[in-house]
Amino acid sequence: MTTNLSRRRFIQQMMIGGLTTPVLLNMLSSNLLAQTGESKQTIIWVLGQSSGIHRSGIWSYPGFHTFMEKHFTLIESDSPNIQDITIESNESGGGHILILDGYFSQDLDDPGNMLLKDLIVVSRAAILMGNEASYSHSAPDGFLDLEKELLYLVETPYFKLPGNPVPIRHLVGALNHLKLYGPPELDEYRRPTMFYSQVICERCQYRGDFEQGNFVRYHGQKEGCLYLLGCKGPVTKNSCALEKWNGTSSWCVSVGSPCTGCSEPDYPNNSGLGLFGQLNADNAPINSFFVRNASTIAQGAFGVTLAGVAIHAFSGRRSRSLSKDSVFGFEEETDE
């Protein structure tokens, strides 16, 4: 199998935020068609208990459906043929790609559970799509821990695409890396490093404000770094600042919301901080004077806020007092 796109160049293209999704799809399509004897790769997408947020955003993206039809054969879990699927031993690439999306029942007698085990064993690779599948160790009672109870027990390679939702570039990149080069390089949480190697802060539009201590102290105040409002950007590895929402021009931070760390294993608890609890200097592994002194800054901001409230209250009382008096300081006479 040959392609005119090296693995190094492929990863670089995946990490370039300026490369729009339509351009990305065209580039990948051209390189897939350039392969000798290019054939479709089978994908089996099994949907468990899930909101469907990942599929709805990705499948509605213009051009994605056409791209998938041209280069992949997709079998979805709600297809009537799913129970009759057969994997041919001579399939190009050594088998199908399995996508697991959502929570899956722990009931051993569940037909879907039995099918899931069989599919994993004969898969070329498994992709855990979204937070429910990626971090199913925190699943509600009655649902499988996919890693501990299934994937650790077989030799099938697997990796995770966490996020809420998963960006289209992550899925497209993962599928094409598997087709062209095999499983991607992974981090300690089994996430592809081409998407989850840098923390949000490194590519955030407010990184300069972060370094200069230009912090937003309450929602709607101004543009600037949202660290004091509980932004998890210093500890969250994802490419949101480049990807934007569904390939558009906006994302959480650009509309004034702190990063909530949705691609991390402890989301939404975030080590007890919740969505908007403030990180301290020990939690934020970025060498910055303002982060090291964040607690002092926060206290100073709180003191300024209290002073402002006190001044406002005093001014209000003074205004009300003056409104009752004449300009000479005497009570105005009223008619009985």
Describe what you observe in this structure:
With 336 residues, the chain is an alpha/beta fold. The chain has two domains: 7-196, Rossmann fold; 199-320, Cytochrome-c3 hydrogenase, C-terminal domain (Cytochrome-c3 Hydrogenase, Chain A, domain 2). It has 13 helices and five strands. β3 (97-101), α5 (111-121) and β4 (125-129) form a beta-alpha-beta unit.
Largest sheet: 5 strands, parallel
**What is the first-to-last residue Cα distance?**
102 Å
Output the number of helix runs.
13
Q: Note poorly predicted spans.
A: 89-93, 301-336
Structural class by secondary-structure content: alpha/beta
Query: What strand order characterises the main sheet?
Result: 2-1-3-4-5
Question: Mean pLDDT, rounded to whole units?
Answer: 78
- Count of extended strands: 5
- How would the global form be characterised? globular
Strand content: 5-15%
- The level of helicity is 25-40%
CATH architecture of the largest domain: 3-Layer(aba) Sandwich
- Which fold does the CATH topology of the largest domain refer to? Rossmann fold
What number of domains?
A: 2
Give the ordered list of helices and strands.
HHEHHEEHEHHEHHHHHH
The CATH superfamily of the largest domain is identified as NADH:ubiquinone oxidoreductase-like, 20kDa subunit
| Cα-based radius of gyration, to the nearest Å | 27 Å
CATH class of the largest domain reads Alpha Beta
